[in-house]
Design goal:
single chain, 142 residues, mainly alpha, 2 helices
């Protein structure tokens, strides 16, 4: 019975580590998504500020601003796709974290049951011991 408790304790430690790793991966993925979202917002601000120049501009400067605006727009679209993928990744990691947490809880319950069974066995042996000794002393057979 002690071996069962020890195995369950090892499983519980493994499940705890798995849950911690899943939570860390979720946080890392969330940070990545937040970083991409921040970059998207920065690109939008840069693009808006590009055409705030209220003065006169010559054709070459205007063409350069149009070129830059097109490239910023393209980069923004690419970041939108990356942001979508990052958010999907965060959701997947959250799901894995939930599964790991559930497995950890199951391992805790199983360890608790093994501990209770071990203690119950000890109590039965303690309760049986005096009766057994009493039978040995008196020589009774039941």
């Amino acid at each position: 019975m002690k071996g069962l408790v020890a195995r369950r304790q090892r499983v519980l430690r493994v499940r705890h580590v798995q849950h911690s790793m899943a939570v860390a991966e979720t946080v890392r993925a969330q940070d990545e998504a937040n970083s991409i979202a921040h970059n998207v917002e920065r690109l939008r601000r840069v693009r808006q500020e590009l055409f705030r120049n209220e003065g006169m501009a010559n054709g070459a400067a205007f063409a350069a601003m149009q070129e830059l605006a097109g490239r910023l727009e393209q980069a923004g679209r690419q970041l939108d796709g990356a942001l979508y993928d990052a958010r999907r990744k965060v959701e997947a990691k959250k799901d894995l974290s939930i599964v790991a947490n559930r497995e950890r809880e199951v391992a805790e319950k199983l360890k608790g049951r093994a501990d209770a069974a071990l203690e119950q066995g000890r109590e039965r042996r303690r309760a049986a011991l005096p009766r057994y000794r009493r039978m040995q002393r008196t020589g009774e057979n039941e």
